[in-house]
Design goal:
The chain is α+β, with helices and mostly antiparallel strands. It has four domains: about 5-215, NPCBM/NEW2 domain (Jelly Rolls, Sandwich), CATH 2.60.120.1060; about 240-315, Immunoglobulin-like (Sandwich), CATH 2.60.40.10; about 325-600, Alpha-Beta Barrel (TIM Barrel), CATH 3.20.20; about 605-685, Sandwich (Immunoglobulin-like), CATH 2.60.40. The strands form eleven sheets. Strands 1, 3, 8, 10, 11, 12, 14 and 16 form an eight-stranded mixed beta sheet that branches. Strands 34-33-32-31-30-27-26-37 form an eight-stranded parallel beta sheet. Strands 2, 4, 7, 9, 13 and 15 form a six-stranded antiparallel beta sheet that branches.
């Protein structure tokens, strides 16, 4: 089966000149260029299409298919998975007529990246043909690729198609094939506006064949043994978590030193900045910095089985929060609108009981649906589920943890509760009075009241709340939640964001995880201590948005999830039921060698350094002179992946350590190769720490 690549004739020639320098007449005979009436429409097709079995674009616009053919939209579309909305037969994802390049197609499948659907053929089909592109309803926005898989092999793939691009003709030979998969990807840049059409999608049946075609969900990768990441917990005391913290002089300071080991543990510090004190039993540092500046304190934790020491750098000044990415818990992915004060208290209790707090997790964040009406003075109140928010904050603080809250710059939140529009300073002052430490500020209804154009439209509401937080007498980490609109990673720092969402909402599916994880390349250059890209919250453990269930991610997908978030210096906000943590999830969230990558004080996130098919290597430098590298496999079968020293600025023989297995793998001269499981990762540290 020939791999079909769809692009303009000149680019075809250039690619073949590059990829097939010794191109033979036989190879070139596979290239068939089709010109549509609109002009410049071309395709590299499978051999059968050269025999004239593929219909042209005019046939795909018809009301009825040619004899012996069926429209793909007559199949059951319910098995199709996609990351937004639902697929529609003969309509776009927004339920408008399917329209590409101004042409309306009566038949086709309107979907949204990322999407997948299998069609069971069992030898009854000879050809698949479709026009593809981003539906005109997006008016130039969106970017997708279309892929056709036949019996496990890629049979056709478009280049990245943007909204407004000339649609492409996909034509694939299905002779004797058992299964076809129709796939749309987000082109590794997120799913915003990715309204994708399989326009006029048509399947030609084999001569004399009865139509027995059926749609089906794409099967998951073959089952693989769960990786062993559960190891005995050491009784020897050890300090974990951030090596550097920031605070504003004059504002309340709270930091619990994360430490493990057989208790009772005792804590001490050789010197702390003026205004701070350390409780020797709890390890909680409180007070208020008296002066700006940077100080380094040597922290010691002691227990019956020994002691550990580590420097802690405290940076005092304006705008110095989140020197490392925030770590903690958020209520949405497990409870959604069912969150309550009681559930938040339980999360705080179990953050400590489970041991997560001892590894650096410190935020307990309330998402939407806590809000009550505004009182006669316009002050926001809580609803009956929450009651006294200050009492809840005091409870969380008593455990050495911090409390986060949620609002929107619009009139209402995403769930329809009162938000902060025209009450920004009032709300910031209320949050400070309650003792709030973190604000997730979600775009939601602001689009209905936004003014201005371009970046001004996106930046304005976040600038307004930033100024309000500056005026409040409290350190509140500021999280911009607006799904990557306007390339927020390029201006999030300028409006005072400590972190900013770069993606749509994540869910516990491979497509969603893959989209959020691998769409971040290039964003890393905009992140630095205090300012972080956020590809959304974690979906490991028991999640469910009000109906908790074990995550649908496989163990290897979960390892990939945590590895990529740590490589990218992303906030680690788990969204699971902390009262029901299983041993695998605890091991996943408390591997200190992995968490140290996320907390690395150098603050230089990873980017993609190499890519080969569905395998990739992402890498970042660490403060101790080593390099962290993730070898990723996005395919549905195990693959060998190689990390080359030259791609990462590494030279000569280097030791390599597997961070999930806590295992030294040996010394390698110029590269390191590993067999990586399907949808999996091998996470390594390269070099000798200084």
């Amino acid at each position: 089966m020939c791999k079909a690549i769809l692009e303009a004739p000149a680019s075809i020639a250039r690619r073949f000149a590059h990829s097939w320098p010794a191109a033979t007449p036989l190879r070139l005979s596979l290239v068939i260029t089709l010109f549509a009436a609109a002009g410049a429409l071309s395709a590299i097709q499978s051999p059968a299409s050269a025999q004239g079995s593929a219909p042209d674009d005019m046939a795909l616009r018809a009301e009825t298919p040619p004899a012996g053919s069926i429209w793909a939209d007559t199949l059951d579309l319910s098995p199709m998975t996609q990351d937004y909305g639902k697929p529609h037969a003969g309509r776009s994802v927004d339920n408008n007529p399917i329209t590409l390049g101004g042409v309306v197609y009566p038949h086709g499948i309107g979907t949204h990246a990322n999407s997948d659907m299998a069609i069971i053929l069992n030898g009854a089909a000879t050809h698949f043909t479709s026009m593809v592109g981003v539906d005109d309803e997006k008016k130039g926005a969106g970017s997708v690729t279309f892929v056709v898989m036949v019996d496990g092999k890629q049979a056709a793939a478009t280049p990245v198609l943007h909204g407004g691009d000339t649609p492409r003709l996909v034509s694939v030979d299905l002779t004797g094939a058992k299964q076809m998969i129709l796939r749309v990807t987000d082109a590794d840049d997120g799913i915003d506006s990715d309204h994708a059409d399989w326009a006029g999608a048509m399947i030609a049946l084999a001569p004399g064949a009865v139509n027995t075609l059926k749609s089906a969900a794409v099967p998951p990768p073959p089952a693989q043994p769960a990786p062993n990441i559960i190891f005995p917990v050491s009784p020897v005391p050890a300090i974990h978590g951030p090596r550097v913290v920031g605070a504003t002089p004059g504002h309340p300071f709270l930091f619990m030193i994360p430490a493990t080991g057989q208790g009772p543990l005792r804590f001490s510090a050789d010197i702390l900045p003026t205004g701070l004190t350390l409780d020797p039993q709890s390890g909680i540092i409180t007070g208020s910095l008296a002066y700006p500046g940077t100080s380094i304190s040597v922290i010691t934790v002691s227990g019956p089985d020994g002691q550990d020491q580590r420097p802690l750098t405290i940076v005092g000044g304006w705008g110095k929060l989140a020197q490392t990415p925030p770590m903690g818990w958020n209520s949405w992915n497990v409870w959604a609108g069912a969150v309550s004060a009681q559930k938040v208290r339980e999360a705080a209790d179990w953050m400590v009981k489970s041991g997560l707090a001892a590894h650096g997790y410190q935020y307990i964040n309330i998402d939407d649906t806590w809000e009550g009406p505004r009182d006669a003075n316009g002050t926001i109140t809580t609803n009956e589920k929450f009651g006294d928010m200050k009492a809840l904050a005091d409870y969380v603080h008593s455990k050495g943890l911090k409390l986060g809250i949620y609002s929107s710059p619009g009139p209402t939140t995403c769930a329809g509760f009162p938000a902060s529009y025209k009450h920004e300073q009032q709300d910031a002052d209320t949050y400070a009075k309650w003792g709030i430490d973190y604000l997730k500020y979600d775009w939601c209804s602001y689009g209905g009241v936004a003014t201005g154009t371009g970046l001004e439209r996106f930046e304005k509401p976040y600038q307004v709340m930033r100024q309000a937080l500056n005026n409040a007498n409290r350190d509140i980490v500021y999280s911009l939640c607006q799904y990557g609109m306007g390339k927020v990673w390029t201006w999030g720092t300028a409006v005072g964001g400590n972190c900013w969402r770069t993606t749509g909402d994540i869910n516990d599916s491979w497509h969603s995880l893959e989209s959020n994880a691998f769409s971040q390349n290039g964003h890393e250059k905009y992140a630095s201590p205090g300012h972080w890209n956020d590809p959304d919250m974690l979906v490991v453990g028991r999640v469910g948005w009000g109906n908790p269930h074990p995550t649908h991610l496989t163990p290897n997908e979960q390892l990939l999830h945590i590895s990529m978030w740590c490589l990218q210096s992303a906030p680690l906000l788990t969204g699971c039921d902390l009262t029901k943590l299983d041993p695998f999830t605890i091991a996943l969230l408390t591997n200190d060698e992995v968490l140290d990558i996320d907390n690395d004080p150098l603050g230089r996130p990873a980017g993609r350094v190499s890519q080969a098919g569905e395998t990739e290597v992402w890498a970042r430098p660490l403060f101790d002179g080593t390099v962290a590298a993730g070898l990723f496999n996005r395919s549905s079968q195990p693959m060998q992946v190689t990390a080359h020293w030259g791609d990462m600025g590494v030279f000569g023989p280097q030791p390599v350590r597997d961070l999930w297995q806590h295992q030294n793998l040996g010394t390698f001269s110029d590269s390191f190769t590993a067999t990586v499981p399907a949808h999996g990762v091998v996470l390594v540290k390269i070099g000798t720490p200084r």
